[in-house]
Amino acid sequence: MNARRRWRSTVVFSLMTIVLAVMCLNCSRNASSEDQKTSDSDSNPSQLAKPMYVAKGDLADILARDELRVLIPKRNNRRFLPRGGLPIEAEMELVESFAKTQGIQIEWIHTDNHRDLLPNLLAGKGDLVAASLTVTPARKEKVAFSVPTAVIKEQVVVRANDPNPPKSIEELVGRQIAVRRSSSYWDTLTELKKTHPGLRFGAVPETIDTQEILGGVSSGKYDITIADNNLLRAVMAYDYNLKPSFDLSGERATAWAVRPDAPELLKALDRFLNREKLATHSPKRYRDDFPQLLQRKTLRLITRNSAATYFLWRGKLLGFEYELIRRFAKKHGMRVEVVVPPARGDLIPWLTEGRGDLIAAAMTVTDERRKLESIAPTTPYNMVSEILVARADDAKKIQSLKDLEDRKIVVRRSSSYWSTLEKLKSEGAGFRLVQAPEELETEEIIARVASGEYDLTLADSHILDIELTWRSDVDAAFPLGDPVPQAWFVRADNPQLLAALNRFISEEYKQTTYNILYKKYFKNQRKIRKHIQFRAKSVGQLSPYDDLVKKFAARYGFDWRLIVAQMFEESQFDPNAQSFAGAVGLMQVLPRTGRQYGFKNLHHPETSIHAGTRYLAYLRDRLDSELSVKDRMWMALAAYNAGYGHLFDARRIAEQKGWNPNRWFDHVEKAMLLLSRPAYARRSRYGYARGHETVRYIREIRRRYNAYLNAAPVD
Fold this sequence. Notes:
Blueprint lengths: L2 H8 L7 H5 L2 H4 L30 H7 L1 E7 L10 E2 L4 H13 L2 E7 L5 H6 L5 E7 L2 H4 L3 E2 L4 E3 L1 E6 L9 H4 L3 E5 L3 H10 L6 E5 L5 H10 L4 E5 H7 L6 E6 L4 E7 L4 H14 L13 H7 L1 E5 L8 E3 L2 E3 L1 H12 L3 E5 L7 H6 L5 E7 L2 H5 L3 E3 L4 E3 L1 E6 H4 L12 E5 L3 H11 L5 E5 L5 H10 L5 E4 H8 L5 E6 L4 E8 L3 H14 L3 H12 L22 H11 L3 H12 L19 H6 L8 H18 L6 H14 L1 H14 L6 H11 L3 H4 L9 H21 L4
Parallel strand pairs: 1-3, 1-4, 8-9, 8-10, 13-16, 13-17, 21-22
Antiparallel strand pairs: 2-16, 4-12, 5-12, 6-12, 7-10, 7-11, 14-15, 17-25, 18-25, 19-25, 20-23, 20-24
Helix pairs in contact: 23-24, 23-26, 24-31, 26-27, 27-28, 27-31, 28-29, 29-31
């Protein structure tokens, strides 16, 4: 057995293809008997959810029909990757908690834009608006608001390099302010214009959310805008080209809205929210132990944005660490607030400073970390090996420590690798240990080894395995030592939190839920898929579903052969396919996405094809009209695969790089590749993405589509 095989056999937990499972739907949508199946068993081919109905009753009527209809904007549940606060779905979780207290179900009603929320509520098309609405006098005249869910300030926002940032309302005169007409900011500016007639503000389209307007200010598209301070703080975690200029308002409340004729529902909401104590202020830094955290109902998770820990895929927050911590928090009635420091070296300092409550970031338990008096590790929950990484053509030549004489191994001093290598040097190893910049992630150091800038490096097996899913220019030489444990870390003066986490690990380790997550992230890898062997019954037939594809492709303005090419890439024509993250059916649509468009039972071929084609049309129609037909199509497919947010980030990077943000091949696709590098992910609104899989996805669809053009003529 050669060296590379030996190290693979020693690794207990392998993340070799986590991101193939996440982004490369061709490899991950295997439908095994152990995979989670949808509970839908509808037989109606259309599989449409029940249509929106009108009802204006109070709490008694809601209880009688056993359903609370909650209005939210279609994109409100995923606006950016949370790096320093509660995930966006936290508000949705709150609504679900309220519904449980009442013993009723929830029907989520998705509106196309903010402007329609209150009109739909007043028309009886929903019972509650949960969208972080700012309480304004104008809105209070129309609807009733709950007690506050948060307290915010409206701030004037400018570019960080603005030469003359306004410091007062008087200095705003003459500047052009971009806001939505339906926003609370418009009401604020309208009121101020009465005393400052020189104020200039223009309405942006209602389909553009505040984050996109902030992005427009950052890029120079807009001059100035207004944003809530908590939202701006979250955006500034990745967009360093923005800054607040001054507070336009004092403290204001955001709240849930109900119709004025639903006083009992409002009372029930207020009782629930008061019990949750959402309106209380918490300091940014505190060092509370578990009992105090339980009272706060919030657990602050310090982690990294990477494929191994915490990332965003098609609007869904994922990651082995993130999901385990969420389960722990949910078990104790807490919400998870995510804190992503700018560099891995900041993890321990941020914990000890009280910026978070625990670190869950695939950290190895080293002797040096055990000696730190300020922190304490939990019981191990994972095992990894530290692997020597070399260029692919060099790895085979390195079989042992003897082959490392005078070779340079580059790692961060703060990493566990440094300790391992120092110990080996003290035992007589002849390699040269070189310090890498602390801001570099292990993935970036591996990339520099691949380019030849660095000679060798060390990486945890799961990190290297992820890299090897897409790159062939590096490889493993051999492992250094036995597998080592990974653990979570808490402050040493939080023994009750440590005990609670240890109990959780003891109870969950190797149990059902843990094993499901373990399989989800570590075992759904490079399975040999039994492809469905489709044999065309007639000339020009591409799939068993050509007639259905033609029907919906024509309805939404697509070439049916392109949709078939995409369908093969998504599921290989398997209607029972299911992905790593729960996307199902021929077109691999997430059930949540299907529900937004009224579709159920996505395993049904007609439903899946209709849902997928309609969703692709939605993504296409969101893109700029000035794009060429081809580039608009490729970018829509990129958004379908990676998520619209990651495409947004890639186009922004392309523009910054001097590439054409309106061209996919050789331009935006190059930028998409960069999103897998931590240096770029840190500065991107939606964070880390496996861009290499998206690039491959589109190239495969194009290749198959070109073949289909010859195989099937236009009808």
